[in-house]
Write a structure and sequence with these properties.
Distance between the termini: 31 Å
Helix content: 10-25%
Strand order of the largest sheet: 4-3-6-1-2-5
Strand content: 25-35%
């Protein structure tokens, strides 16, 4: 694979993050549209090159024909044999390739990295997950990995429109089947009335605000204790900057900018 021989460093935002020492060869198993701007890529590691990761981690993503490296969080359960990446369209070469050229059977390489993750054995009693847009990816991996445990999980998830609220069907199914997982949805550019009367309870209009988080955390402290709560954020930089400075709980997040 000569097209892997020359590579430039990943973006400055993750230069200091932990990374596995080697690259892993993968084959594109499938690629599907899950929104007008997001494709779900399923990768099968080649035999004898198993890809292991912790819930919440990401991969450096290497494609043919360019020295540019993509960085995408896994949305799959670490126990799954396939690695799943939901990739939003952009003109950045790796994302552009996924949306315009990628097909089943193509060869890629990945390298696992990231210091923000949560395993079911962490000892957390309650986990608050706050995601915006494509930032749902690592949070979904954390939920899938831990939803069968006794830990309480609550997700606050926002997107511009219902169409871009990817995976919400999967999240609804998990919330129905697991009493320890609950979820709230927020739409920032679409009003509840536009979605029909059946969706009033499920979807809220507006952004996720610090007051919503602080009220929930205050309630949880009485049940789980302050030390038993973990909070993870993933979303656009303005959202992360605002929430991390205004909520009354320690926030864990990767800074890509």
């Amino acid at each position: 694979k000569q097209w892997y021989q020359r590579r430039v460093a990943i973006t400055a935002g993750t230069n200091g993050s932990s990374r596995d020492p080697g690259l892993r060869d993968c084959t594109v198993s499938s690629i599907t549209d899950i929104s007008p701007t997001v494709k779900l890529l399923k990768l099968a590691p080649v035999p004898k090159q198993q890809v292991t990761f912790k819930p919440g981690q990401w991969v450096d993503f290497f494609i043919p024909g360019t020295d540019m490296i993509g960085g995408y969080s896994m949305c799959s359960d670490p126990r799954s044999p396939l690695l799943e990446l939901a990739i939003k369209y952009s003109t950045h070469p790796p994302a552009h390739w996924v949306h315009k050229s990628c097909k089943a059977g193509d060869d890629v390489q990945v390298r696992v990295g990231g210091d923000v993750h949560l395993e079911p054995s962490s000892g957390a009693k309650a986990v608050l997950l706050v995601g915006g847009g494509i930032g749902i990816n690592p949070l979904l991996s954390i939920i899938k990995a831990g939803v069968d445990s006794s830990t309480k999980y609550h997700l606050l998830y926002s997107a511009g429109t219902l169409e871009e609220l990817i995976f919400w069907y999967d999240l609804e199914e998990m919330s129905v089947n697991h009493e320890n997982f609950t979820v709230e949805y927020f739409l920032t550019r679409e009003t509840v009335k536009q979605l029909g009367s059946n969706n009033f309870v499920k979807f809220q209009s507006g952004r996720i605000i610090s007051e919503t988080i602080n009220k929930l955390v205050d309630d949880w402290k009485n049940v789980f204790g302050a030390d038993g709560i973990r909070c993870f954020l993933c979303g656009p930089p303005p959202m992360i900057d605002y929430l991390s400075k205004n909520v009354e709980v320690k926030c864990e997040y990767e800074k890509w900018w």
